[in-house]
Fold this sequence. Notes:
Blueprint: E1 4-8, E2 12-19, E3 33-39, H1 41-52, E4 55-63, H2 68-77, E5 85-88, E6 94-101, E7 104-110, H3 119-124, H4 126-131, E8 134-137, H5 143-155, E9 159-162, H6 172-177, E10 180-181, H7 185-191, H8 201-210, E11 215-219, E12 225-229, E13 235-237, H9 250-263, H10 268-282, H11 295-302
Parallel strand pairs: 1-4, 1-8, 2-6, 4-5, 8-9, 9-10, 10-11
Antiparallel strand pairs: 2-3, 6-7, 11-12, 12-13
Helix pairs in contact: 1-9, 7-8, 9-10, 10-11
Bound molecules: adenosine-5'-triphosphate and alpha-D-ribofuranose.
Amino acid sequence: MKPKITVIGSLNMDLLVKSSRFPNRGETILGESVEYFSGGKGANQAVAASRLGAEVTMIGAVGDDLYGDRLKEILKKDQVDISSIKTVGGESSGLAIILLENADNRIIVIQGANAHCTKEDIDLNQAKIRESDIILIQMEVPLETVNYAVSMAKTFNKTVILNPAPAQELSDDLLQKVDIITPNDTELRLLTNKKTEGYNFNQRIDMLLEKGVQHVVTTIGSEGSVYKAAKQELITFPAYQVPVVDTTGAGDCFNGALAFALGRGDSITDAIKLANKTAALSVSKYGAQSSMPTLDDVREFEKNLNYKK
Ligand code: ATP
Ligand code: RIB
């Protein structure tokens, strides 16, 4: 049976601007190209899970501008149930300006309609949350909505994965309701605040575990990921050796794959292994959703695995 996943999160139009280097402060430079890709952390994670074989519903919001319908249609083509994505009149869709220099990126997100994904939307879609195996959520919709959705998911005893991106401080009350949190290095630092300057991963993760999260999975880009549960040893999952063209959405790919694998019943360590492979494949292609692999792609990749030295 296909795992059922509800993603609560953002949809953005990504403007991918390539240049040979980033401009300095106050400087204007000529870029190389601009391309439009469908993105948004929520939508990217929905596509990642769906391409691997999950039955995915997305709760979110788009604007009634040029991009809104297009963002929804693209998700629909990837078999994501878009019936819980609303269109907000008089508002623009979320937009991300992505500056790409070689494989390195800098991103500014304009929240637009994503800011209108509210508690009422969670109430309206209570039945979908209740039917899901996994609830996957990020921080590009209002914090109030995140808090509300996580609380509802817990009352239905659902497994909640929180990808705390973009980084912001979170209350202990929220953290205690999260089963699995998936910060990258920057987000982990912010969540454990500056007092931990000089601390290593293990110590920072322990601080989060002490706040009541059950499992911490930290992604560390080209170094792979690490995992720790309360009172357990830290486990390291090295990255795979791949040609890197664009890392945008690598974290989203990782989260979507993690949700898929946990939803089908994998152990958390097996789920992280699959997520590491799936995300490695995604960094070899441009764009976020456009770079998400299928399960067949992952199986093919498994035949020639190569860890980073
Ligand atoms: P983004 O915000 O760009 O989506 P992120 O910062 O949330 O990314 P990362 O930690 O950069 O996430 O990457 C997520 C996962 O992607 C890593 O844990 C790893 O599995 C894979 N990955 C990222 N970069 C590389 C790379 N250069 N080579 C191999 N795998 C990679
Ligand atoms: O994680 C990558 C995503 O972050 C991009 O697709 C962009 O929309 C921003 O939300």
